[in-house]
Specification:
Strand content: 35-45%
Distance between the termini: 35 Å
Helix content: under 10%
Largest sheet: 4 strands, antiparallel
Shape: globular
Number of strands: 56
Strand order of the largest sheet: 1-56-55-54
Oligomer: single chain
Radius of gyration: 30 Å
Number of helices: 6
Structural class: mainly beta
Length: 824
């Protein structure tokens, strides 16, 4: 389309622009440089954005407005208005925010920063889902722990009314991959560019700019997972993995140059450079059967050179620089045994030692003759290649495998970063073994590969939600840490100083949360929130918290109940105890402890209270595999069942044609139904074929008998509906598409439409119509969620009594919002 045909062509000189008396000729006088031109273009385009965000903008606007604003140094909410963001399709906003120069403090970027938080996770969500997610992210970032502000509660097109938030999601995601990442490295091209290179489980190699934008077309091996990447001078890259082959690539040309090694039936366990004293450098390739070979790094032909003998098992290798002209020694790990081979010595191996767990990574350090290693027992340590002298890290990391290491420099000190099975990264001083800074948290699965990026004296990332213009400066020579996680994300961190772009710390991750009904005369919900630091009740109408009295173990589950008219909060604790608290004194008075219940031998995972024949009963499911029934009126145990083979993950109460039934979901993959008095089985177990069943919910159906279905949420990422009378599935499987289902909640919309909400570690809340099975909405939070709760209707007198209220909680905190599926 020519400029003459474009609806966005510049106004002719002397012709006033839409809504502005200023002329293009007047603007042209201000074109001092290219930056001014981009600024003027951004201003002109911004005036063409419709005020209603539900109206699609012209593709040119959504594709180029943010880019022009960044180039013109006016990347702010005035020039990239809210209405265009849900349709935004230019280079991603978080990248533009990082690349743009610092802006003055008076400029506002709240909506842009909110969009940057969720942008990596939005994927193919529709406009309704995008706008709703943006609205919720903006409220969470700008109004933490603030009561409902009706003036800011509505956004045209959004399906939510944010009520209360305590949410601090990380903002250090560089990129999100559709596949699981297996390897990561950094290379410097011949023209001086630093690039990140990743390999995935589908055999694809991708190049990324340091700010996360794809640098060029992906390379396809058409083989197994790419588990090893080795950059070489001249824009060359070696890749290897589970198909037993080594391939040579020219990165900038995107060409496969050679396949010097091909051994079907094996996999490559190590790929590294090695240079013995007075010998040329070679590429070492170790296979799963213990075969070790050497390649010339220029011709990639086999090299006949002395090599150590290996056991017939997979080996990990790392060259260890000995300093000066002494060449290298070779650290070799096979299972739990580690040996160091020194080609200068006639006896070869200098020493060996055994570990408690299988060694997972080896890495050379800048100090001559020293290397670091980690293993499945959680051990991380530093050793001398000549003497075997050990320096373990202190304090020791949490128990569990340490799966990745990389060497880096922090404030001029040699350091090592580790990635563990607890999803966190830690940084250690390579000389003393002391921790540098605290744990780096944000991944939702283990970080499987680590590398570094060179720091600069420029602002390289933005700390959100800090005010616009406050940049996270990285001193010259300070390296940034980059991690590839099994959660399909690439993330960037500032070692020793928190995540590169980490949000402000407000609380530890929420372990459990629940809605407790109205907490004030205004009818605003009272929510119970627990984390490692304690438990508090928040009145969302006033923003005032009340802490539960100290002296109890951390809370693992909540339930609300009403006994003889008195409102109660029921808390389950990590010590397996259950406590009853009276809320009768109001939302702003400390709850009074009434009694305790003992019986579980391991912590309770889920509870539900319900009225039955004039009494209030409580059902609990625990990690000990038991389902227990309690009478809250008499504060006593009624029954216990041990039919689940493993942990009970969730419980719910449903109405059936035969009366109330208790449903419990277990790690054994079953949902079991129980009589609400005797706790005897009410029918055969439902074998859900979802691996572990993490969540269960009652789903009413619009039929005369008022019967309810059972919804099960599985580890396989699906939701299934079951008829409890026949034990058969109803309708098709519902797939959340972003990991295991962690929580379910049922509610009805203002018009009575039945909806089921589901979420998981991907951090997206999915809403379905249970009558039709149609997917209604995706609410993207950008942080893992583990709890959902719903109130079907607000109490009379509340600000939005016609809409249900949903609570979502997880790693980043908790948020509460009303749902408006009908109307705008």
């Amino acid at each position: 389309m020519s400029d003459a045909d474009s609806p966005f062509r510049a106004p002719r000189p002397g012709r006033p622009d839409t809504g502005d008396s200023r002329t293009w000729a007047d603007d042209a006088k201000a074109w001092a440089d290219t930056r001014d031109a981009h600024r003027l273009i951004a201003e002109a385009l911004a005036r063409l954005v419709a005020a209603d965000p539900t109206i699609p903008p012209h593709p040119y606007l959504s594709r180029h407005l943010a880019h022009h604003a960044a180039r013109g140094e006016v990347l702010d909410d005035a020039h990239v208005p809210l209405a265009v963001l849900p349709w935004e399709s230019s280079a991603n906003v978080r990248t533009l925010l990082r690349q743009s120069d610092a802006v003055s403090a008076v400029r506002r970027q709240e909506w842009l920063e909110a969009w940057a938080r969720i942008e990596p996770f939005i994927g193919g969500a529709g406009p309704d889902s995008r706008l709703t997610s943006l609205h919720l992210a903006h409220h969470a970032a700008t109004r933490p722990r603030t009561p409902l502000d009706t003036s800011a509660a509505r956004v045209s097109g959004s399906r939510v009314t944010p009520l209360w938030s305590d949410w601090t999601a990380r903002d250090n995601v560089l990129a999100v991959s559709e596949t699981r990442l297996e390897s990561l490295t950094r290379t410097t091209t011949t023209d001086g560019r630093s690039l990140l290179v990743s390999g995935d489980d589908h055999g694809t190699i991708r190049m990324w700019e340091p700010h996360g934008v794809p640098a060029m077309a992906p390379l396809h091996t058409y083989g197994g997972a790419v588990q090893h990447l080795l950059p070489l001078p001249g824009d060359l890259l070696l890749s290897a993995g589970t198909d037993g082959s080594v391939r040579v690539w020219h990165l900038t040309r995107g060409q496969l140059l050679a396949e010097p090694v091909h051994r079907p039936g094996t996999w490559v366990s190590a790929l590294t450079l090695f240079a013995a004293k007075d010998a040329p450098e070679v590429v070492l390739v170790a296979h799963s059967d213990g075969r070790l070979g050497a390649l010339d790094p220029v011709t990639f032909r086999p090299v006949d050179t002395p090599l150590p003998s290996l056991d017939p098992a997979p080996a990990l290798l790392s060259g260890v620089g000995l300093g000066g002209a002494e060449g290298m020694a070779l650290a070799v790990a096979q299972g739990r045994r580690v040996r160091v081979w020194d080609p200068r010595r006639p006896d070869g191996y200098t020493y060996e030692h055994q570990h408690e767990g299988a060694v997972r990574a080896l890495v050379d350090l800048a100090a001559p003759g020293r290397y670091a290693l980690c293993d499945d027992s959680g051990y991380i340590g530093f050793r001398d290649a000549s003497t075997g002298r050990e320096t373990p890290v202190a304090p020791a990391p949490p128990a569990g495998p340490v799966v990745a290491l990389t060497a880096l420099t922090v404030a001029g000190r040699a350091a090592v970063a580790s990635g563990g099975s607890d999803h966190t990264l830690r940084v250690w001083d390579a000389r003393t073994g002391a921790a540098i800074g605290g744990p780096l948290e944000g991944h939702t699965a283990p970080p499987v590969a680590l590398t570094t990026l060179p720091g600069t004296s420029q602002a390289t990332s933005r700390e959100l939600p800090a005010p616009a213009g406050q940049e996270l400066l990285v001193p010259a020579g300070q390296e940034l840490l980059v991690s590839a996680g099994a959660d399909h994300t690439l993330r960037r961190w500032k070692p020793g100083g928190g995540g590169g772009g980490a949000g402000r710390a407000v609380r530890r991750p929420v372990t459990t949360a629940a809605l407790s009904g109205p907490g004030s005369t205004a009818g605003a919900p009272l929510i119970a929130v627990a984390d490692e630091s304690g438990t508090a009740l928040w009145d969302t109408g006033t923003g005032r918290p009340v802490a539960l009295p100290a002296g109890h173990a951390p809370v693992t589950a909540f339930a609300s109940a009403r006994v003889r008219g008195e409102p109660l909060l029921v808390t389950a604790h990590r010590d397996a105890g259950i406590q009853l608290w009276s809320l009768e004194r109001g939302a702003h008075a400390a709850p009074a402890r009434l009694a305790g219940l003992l019986g579980h031998s391991l912590p309770v995972r889920s509870m539900a209270a319900f009225p039955y024949e004039g009494r209030t009963l409580l059902v609990t499911g625990g990690e000990d595999g038991t389902v227990r029934l309690w009478d809250l009126d008499r504060v006593c145990a009624l029954a216990c069942r041990e039919d689940h083979l493993l942990s009970v993950r969730d419980v719910a109460v449903l109405d059936t044609a035969r009366g109330p039934r208790i449903a419990s979901a277990g790690t054994d993959g079953t949902v079991r139904l129980w009589d609400p008095v005797t706790l005897r089985p009410a029918g055969a177990p439902l074998h859900c074929e979802q691996r572990v069943v993490n969540a269960v919910a009652a789903v009413p159906v619009d039929e005369p008998d008022g019967a309810e279905l059972v919804a099960s949420g599985g580890e396989d990422g699906t939701i299934r509906l079951w008829d409890p009378g026949t034990g058969r599935p109803v309708g098709r499987r519902l797939d959340i598409g972003d990991g295991p289902v962690a929580a379910l909640a049922f509610f009805r919309t203002a018009t009575g439409r039945p909806c089921l909400a589901a979420t998981g570690p991907g951090g997206t809340i999915h809403l379905w119509d249970t009558d039709t099975g149609s997917h209604l909405l995706r609410i993207v939070t950008g942080s893992p969620l583990g709890a959902l709760d719903a109130l079907d209707a607000r109490q009379p007198g509340g600000p939005h009594p016609e809409h249900p209220v949903l609570l979502a909680a997880g790693v980043a905190g908790v948020c509460v919002f009303g749902i408006r599926m009908e109307g705008r």
